[in-house]
């Protein structure tokens, strides 16, 4: 049985991008994996591209009908035979040591079920800044997807034991939802001392093309996270910092309002402290 199952859903992927993604997996320094690829576009498949690679670790499947990203990812999970699942998007580039670094951590930390890595965007050259340790990641998950999904490696047994899969009802935030479902069941870690993936940030990314739908799905995730993890959520509220800008003529930053817990600070031009406001809750005694 392979140590890793690499899971790649494909949908009308640009040929150059797809080849770069596939070749980045085949160049991994850790070689004990099966490479499962599911094509979710039956009428416009990429079979010829994928079958041009003769590596025996590649297993190609084509959905008979379009299932969508969540169900395609679930099909990949159900077919996987590996101990660990490596999430791979169809147009990103995994650097050669990615799998080796993630496996080393998971093998040494059986309490951890999800390991992400630092990434760098290909076009804008931005570097991710997610928290490193389990508690900080879980706290951040109260408000954001604190593990870059395209870098994740997941312990398959955790998903199977708790019957957790991607939920299409939360698409296109199904990855964020999955991580939040795992909060009570396993530990998280992000490898932040090395960039291990190059993320292709372009105009056709789901985060751009389905922005409104993503916002609605994220709100739905927040609702169930608040209900399922009230203690963690309240701790997050106490520690979280919210910043609002008041701009003159729409672009000149006039006032900066920073709120943390029950205290608000208002700055002029971003650095001159004008005032502090503190909220106090009084409970009236009833005789």
Please supply descriptive tags for the structure shown above.
287 residues; alpha/beta; eight-stranded mixed β-sheet; four-stranded antiparallel β-sheet; 10 helices; 32% helix; 28% strand; globular; disordered C terminus
Task: Give the number of helices.
Answer: 10
**Could you tell me the number of beta strands?**
12
* Lateral strand order in the biggest sheet: 3-2-1-4-7-6-8-5
Radius of gyration: 22 Å
Q: Give helix and strand order, one letter per element, not per position.
A: EHEHEHEEHEHEHHEHHHEEEE
Low-confidence runs of at least 5 consecutive residues: 280-287
**Overall outline:** globular
The helix fraction, in percent, is: 25-40%
Distance between the termini: 71 Å
Q: How would you describe what is shown here?
A:
By secondary structure, the protein is α/β, with parallel strands linked by helices. It is 32% helix and 28% strand. The protein has helices spanning 15-26, 47-50, 69-79, 98-108, 134-140, 156-161, 174-181, 206-209, 211-228, 230-239; strands at residues 4-10, 33-39, 58-62, 84-87, 93-94, 112-121, 153-155, 187-199, 241-248, 252-260, 263-268, 272-278. The strands form two sheets. Strands 3-2-1-4-7-6-8-5 form an eight-stranded mixed beta sheet, sandwiched between helices. α1 links the parallel β1 and β2. Mean pLDDT is 90; it is low at 280-287.
């Amino acid at each position: 049985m392979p140590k890793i199952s690499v899971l790649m859903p494909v949908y009308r992927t640009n040929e150059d991008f797809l080849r770069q993604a596939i070749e980045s997996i085949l160049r991994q320094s850790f070689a004990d994996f099966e490479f499962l690829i599911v094509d979710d576009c039956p009428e416009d498949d990429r079979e010829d591209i994928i079958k041009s690679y003769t590596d025996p670790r590649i297993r190609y499947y084509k959905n008979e009908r379009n299932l969508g990203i969540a169900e395609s990812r679930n099909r990949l999970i159900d077919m996987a035979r590996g101990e660990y699942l490596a999430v791979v998007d169809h147009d990103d580039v995994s650097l050669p040591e990615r799998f080796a670094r993630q496996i080393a951590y998971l093998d040494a930390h059986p309490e951890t079920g999800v390991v992400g890595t630092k990434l760098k965007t290909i076009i804008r050259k931005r570097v991710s800044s997610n928290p490193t340790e389990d508690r900080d990641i879980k706290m951040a998950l109260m408000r954001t997807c604190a593990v870059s999904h395209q870098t994740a490696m997941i312990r398959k047994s955790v998903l199977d034991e708790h019957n957790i899969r991607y939920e299409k009802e939360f698409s296109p935030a199904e990855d964020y939802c999955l991580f939040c479902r795992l909060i009570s069941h396993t530990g998280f870690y992000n490898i932040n001392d090395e960039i291990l993936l190059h993320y292709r940030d372009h105009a056709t990314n789901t985060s751009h093309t389905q922005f409104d739908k993503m916002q609605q799905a994220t709100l739905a995730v927040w609702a169930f996270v608040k209900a399922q993890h009230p203690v963690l959520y309240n701790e997050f509220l106490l520690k979280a910092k919210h910043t609002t800008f008041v701009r003159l003529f729409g672009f000149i930053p006039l006032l900066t309002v920073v709120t943390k817990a029950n205290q608000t600070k208002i700055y002029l031009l971003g650095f001159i402290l004008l005032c502090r406001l503190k909220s106090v809750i009084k409970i009236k005694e009833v005789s």
